[in-house]
Each structure stands twice: as C-alpha cells, then as structure tokens.
Write a structure and sequence with these properties.
The complex is a heterodimer of chains A (about 230) and B (about 240). With about 230 residues, chain A is mainly alpha-helical. Helix content of chain A is about 45%, strand content about 0%. Among the domains of chain A are: about 1-50, no CATH class; about 80-95 and about 135-225, no CATH class. The two termini of chain A are about 40 Å apart. Chain B is mainly α and about 240 residues long. Among the domains of chain B are: about 5-45, no CATH class; about 105-220, Cytochrome c-like domain (Cytochrome Bc1 Complex, Chain D, domain 2, Orthogonal Bundle). In chain B, helix 5 runs parallel beside helix 6 (about 150-160), helix 5 crosses helix 9 (about 205-220) and helix 8 packs across helix 9 (about 205-220). The radius of gyration of chain B is 34 Å and the shape is elongated. Chain B has helices at about 5-10, 10-25, 30-50, 105, 125-140, 150-160, 175, 180-190, 205-220; strands at about 110, 115. Chain B has a two-stranded antiparallel sheet.
Chain lengths: ~230, ~240
C-alpha cells in the first residue's frame, strides 16, 4: 500500500506520461510529503479505531471452562435449551446453575472443572460469568424482537458451535447494526432455522430474505429512537 | 492510463530514476526506504490485533456514556449478599396475571385427580409447537423419537458415568399408560433422576410437548389402518 502511495505521490508531482522536471518537483515536494503523511495517519487511525480492531476478538476468561463447541456443537443442544428466554425477553439469559445441573448432577458430577457450578448450586450464589457481548449502556437491544422476526443467532454471534471459549465475532457497532436494518434480507431465515448454525438458504440469500420480509411485513426502522431511548 | 501499466514501461522508470538521481543527495533514498519499512510496523500490529483473540476488555476510544452506573439484567451488585442486582419478588407476592388458581392448566389436575384432558384444544399449531419444544428440551436425553437415545444419553454411556440412569423410552407402555396430567406433572416437576423443567419451559409449551409425545407414542404403536387412505399405497 505504501508503495502505491509513493507512486501516487510521484504522479502528483509530475503529470503521467511526461518525466517530471526538476523545477516542478522541487516546488511540489513539501505539499506531497504532507499529503502522503496525512493519508498515512488517516489510514492508521481509521484502521486502528474500527470496531473490527477494538471490539472483535474479545475472549474473556470464564470462571468455568464451559465449551459451546462440545455442548452446542458436538452434542447439538439447541441454543434455547440454556438461553431459554431469548424468544420472550430482551435478554438471552445466561442460564441459572440449575440448568447446568440438569445433566451434571449425573454426568461428570465429580469433575474439578465443574467445581464453581457445584459450589453455586450448593450455596445459591450465581456463577460469575464474564459478559462477552456488551453493548453501550444507551443501546436497548432486544433479542426477542430479532429472533422472532427471522434473524438467526449466528448472524450476530458467529459460529458459537465451534468456540471452546466464546469470543466476540462481529463488530456489534452502530454502523454494523444499521447495515442490516437498512438491508435485512441477507440475514433473514425461516423460524425453524433460527438457532441453526450451519443453515444456508436454498437459493440466493437476498431473494430468499426478500420473500420472508414480504411474508412477515418486516420494516426495520433506522430511526435513532429504535435503539436509543 | 493505469499506474502499473506505466510502471512496466522501463523507459518511464528510468526517466524517473534518473531525474531523482540527478537532483537528490545520496542519503535520501535510504531514508525513504527506511520510512516506508517503518511505516508498515503499526499496520502490522493493528492487523495482528484484528485476527487474534484477547482477554483484554475492548478499547473504548471515546467512552461517552458506554458504561453507565445502572443495573442491567443479570448484572452484579455489591449491595446484596448474593451479588445479584436482580431481586426475587418478595415472598407471598403475586405478579399480575400469574395467580396460581388454575389446577388443570398449572398442575394437570381435575378435582384432585390427574387430568385425562388438555386445558386447551389441541390444534395442528399446538402439535408443531410441541415438536419444536420437544426437540429443544427433551430430545437431548430422550432422543428425537423419544426412545431414550438422545445425544446426552449417548455421551453419558460413552463416558460410563456411574450415576447416570438411562432415560425412559417415552413410547414404552409405562409412559403410554400415564394420563396427560401425569405427563405434564413429570415435565414440570421431574421424576426420579429427571430434573424439573417447569422453570425452563412455559406452561403452555409443556402441554404442547405432552400432545407431541402422544403423537410419538402413536407413531411407534401404529397399525397400517392408522395411515390415511390416500397414503396407504406409500407403505409398500
């Protein structure tokens, strides 16, 4: 990229096709350096400050080495087995310890990895999971509104069924949300495929999404007050 | 004309080089090369941070009011002994619309006996809902056909878990002979090693699951006459 910029700079100093004369170069050189430096700093700042750099890839350590790759991937548990409020509430709740113990009372009931879960079950104190997908306090995202209109889990959370430790896979920035609010077709799917991680539309995703959009009369708003209250 | 086409023209390149060579001191070229090389370093670091994962919390360049001193769902609070910001309702309080007064709907009982009927009409919609909920909450252990061969059961077998009790086949005679109210109660409150699913599944969905279980049971104990006349020929 830098090399390209250098050549652009050269072109800025002399018109293409004609070798630059010494005089012209001498006059335009400081301006050229300033433009070059400006472009470089701009690219650097935009690249460094984009949510793809600052937010994506956040993978906090959790108090229990729970693996989505095992539970959701290998065992094929539906997302809603644990995140059972996702269709009714704004929050796709982190499951209570009771949900873990549904199985782990008898499966791997002595495992040291599950110590924190058993302790929580015995004392009634919650396991202190670390939040991965954290929107700013002035954003009011509602899971049920999206899930019931045909936006699948994988659209915002990525391939959770392949994550041993969950990380943020998408930028979750305002621009990213608006991209979809303005052109939702490619992210729409039938209701019975909402939690499927590997579903692909049988035809062109946009054409398929258009049909779902028309069927349900979806008209996602991009007004400020839709997400900010 | 494209830059690269132009560059391929050796004549042009030579002219550029000569023009630079005649005019610039010797140290300029190494300095430019060094600058170009050094200018790549921050870009490489940024590119690396874009593709690697980190447990360092996200960087907020402009914090604004991203983190507000308010409680969100399931957040922690130092005010309470259990560190939960969300508080359970005071004992003895009843939320609007949640008065616990429908014995049939909430407990599967009619006059103290297990109900043999549903609290609402079983429609195709209810059956579809029941199948979906069954596949989410029951199939992990009981299997998609209710035979007790779910993925969790298979894994428990593979791990040779001593405490594991294989799940009952839902199409067995024992379960088939149970009343609707009893099955509903089993889902709600659990039985033997099966945990209670009342907290996880809303009450209407639990009834829908009972309806779908009845369909599974019938499918495993059907005679050719149960198949609709226009599909009889498909049996062969």
């Amino acid at each position: 990229m830098d090399l390209t910029v250098v050549f652009i700079f050269r072109y800025a100093c002399g018109s293409p096709g004609e070798p630059p004369t010494a005089n012209r170069r001498r006059n335009s050189e400081p301006a050229g350096v300033a433009i070059l430096g400006g472009i470089y700093v701009l690219v650097l700042v935009v690249y460094a400050a984009s949510p793809g750099t600052t937010d994506v890839g956040y993978q906090p350590n959790q108090p229990v080495p729970y693996s989505h790759a095992l539970h959701a991937g290998k065992l094929g548990l539906d997302c809603r087995y644990c995140h059972s409020t996702v269709e009714y509430a704004a929050q796709a709740a982190i499951p209570p310890t009771q949900t873990c113990m549904n199985c782990h009372k008898s499966v791997r009931s002595e495992s040291p990895k599950l110590l924190a879960v058993r302790e929580s079950y015995a004392t009634g104190k919650p396991v202190e999971w670390v939040r991965v997908h954290d929107l700013p306090g002035f954003v009011y995202f509602n899971h049920s509104a999206h899930v019931r209109r045909g936006v699948g889990c994988v659209s915002c959370h990525g391939r959770v069924d392949r994550m041993d430790v969950v990380y943020q896979a998408k930028p979750l920035s305002m621009g990213w949300c608006l991209d979809c609010h303005r052109n939702p077709e490619a992210s729409l799917r039938p209701q019975d495929k909402i939690t499927s991680m590997d579903w692909t539309p049988p035809e062109d995703p946009v054409a398929f999404g258009k049909r779902i959009r028309a069927e349900q009369g979806l008209n996602p708003s991009s007004d400020c007050w839709t997400c900010h209250r | 004309m494209s830059i690269f086409r132009e560059l391929q023209d050796h004549q042009t390149v030579r002219q550029y080089t000569r023009a630079a060579g005649e005019r610039l001191p010797r140290w300029v070229l190494p300095v430019i090369v060094t600058l170009v090389v050094v200018s790549w370093i921050p870009l490489v670091f940024i590119a690396k941070s874009r593709v690697t994962k980190s447990d360092v919390p996200r960087i907020q360049l402009i914090p604004d009011m991203d983190q507000q001193p308010k409680y969100l769902a399931q957040t922690a609070s130092p005010l309470f002994a259990d560190h939960r910001a969300m508080r359970p309702p005071v004992e003895g309080t009843v939320a609007r619309g949640e008065l616990d007064d429908d014995d049939l709907l909430l407990r599967g009982k009619v006059d103290g006996n297990w109900s043999t009927t549903f609290p609402f009409p079983v429609t195709m919609e209810v059956m579809h809902r029941g199948r979906e909920r069954f596949n989410i909450f029951c199939a992990p252990c009981h299997g998609l056909a209710g035979m007790g061969d779910g993925m969790v059961a298979k894994r428990a077998d593979a791990l040779q878990e001593g405490k594991w009790v294989p799940p009952t086949s839902l199409t067995s005679d024992v379960v088939r002979e149970r009343t609707d109210g009893e099955l509903f109660n089993t889902i709600s409150n659990g039985i033997r090693t099966m945990p209670a699913y009342g907290p996880q599944i809303p009450v209407g969905d639990r009834w829908a699951i009972v309806a779908y279980m009845r369909a599974l049971q019938r499918s495993q104990n059907a005679s050719p006459n149960d198949v609709p006349a226009d599909h009889q020929s498909d049996l062969r």
